[in-house]
Amino acid sequence: MNYRHAFHAGNFADVIKHIILTRILSYMQRKEAGLRVLDTHAGIGLYDLTSEEAQRSPEWEQGIKALLAAQLDEEVQQVIAPYLEIVKNLNEGDKLTRYPGSPLIAQMMLRPQDRLSAIELHPQDIQRLEHNLAGDRKTKVTHLDGWQALVAHVPPKEKRGVILVDPPFEKAGEFGRLADGVKKAHRRFSGGVYALWYPIKDNEAKEHFLLQLRESGIGKILRIEFFIDKPSSPPKLHGTGMIVVNPPYVLHDEMKKALPALLPILAPSGRGRVRVEWLRED
Ligand code: SAM
């Protein structure tokens, strides 16, 4: 397990992923009933942007830092407000030194009736995660294989749940594991909202993954992709993707509106683009 998210925390991919997560949670919290967030690959929860890892090639400068400095129209501001509020709450004044990971974002949004299960396998990261999420009785941190948790921890007893699957993609076959995992989990908990992150780098593997999902029998699948550049050779990460199974009905329109407005900020190359479309809309 070599992947270290600290090198990438707060980059354009984190920004898009975390905006989507906050939109899903905000929408689901319009209903009074409690919900469960299951974060299968949680990371450490809180990132120090002054650390050596975050400073080495400071990806967050073209991500969260650029976004915080940007002027956005009212409608877009409203969409990203819950996310930006969380980031601002962690930092003092205008100084940006800390960035929240997905489990901390979820934890900060929990209402008394909601619960968070954060899963991490890395032996050191799990300790940092426990430390960073400590003191909240609504949160449970577990040292476990996220692929196992994805199936074994659903359905949650709340019967309403958001399942974030954000693997590191450091090993071959991760796209296959992601497609198989969500198919199995969906069989056990068909009403869950599943948010599946994937890198946009290797087009062939990505297209095969999307085809597997399209043919999976799962009814409602939204595809959200944000490119910061054109593909290159050798391939490098030039975009970020998120599949949302059973998305809140407003998510499609919100992303269609907000993401293009983020292109000039997060994709200054001028070669970025956005794709928001239904993979299945049965
Ligand atoms: N979701 C986090 C966020 O948005 O802040 C970032 C997660 S990072 C992309 C992926 C994490 O998965 C790493 O912390 C890595 O240690 C962990 N990981 C790798 N393999 C795992 C596995 N099989 N089960 C659980 N966690 C795993």
Automatic annotation (TrEMBL):
Active site location: 166 (proton acceptor)
Swiss-Prot/TrEMBL catalytic activity: adenosine(2030) in 23S rRNA + S-adenosyl-L-methionine = N(6)-methyladenosine(2030) in 23S rRNA + S-adenosyl-L-homocysteine + H(+)
Swiss-Prot/TrEMBL keywords: Methyltransferase, RNA-binding, rRNA processing, S-adenosyl-L-methionine, Transferase
GO process annotations (BP): rRNA base methylation
Biological role stated in the UniProt entry: Specifically methylates the adenine in position 2030 of 23S rRNA.
Record's subunit section: Monomer.
Protein name: Ribosomal RNA large subunit methyltransferase J
Gene responsible for this protein: rlmJ
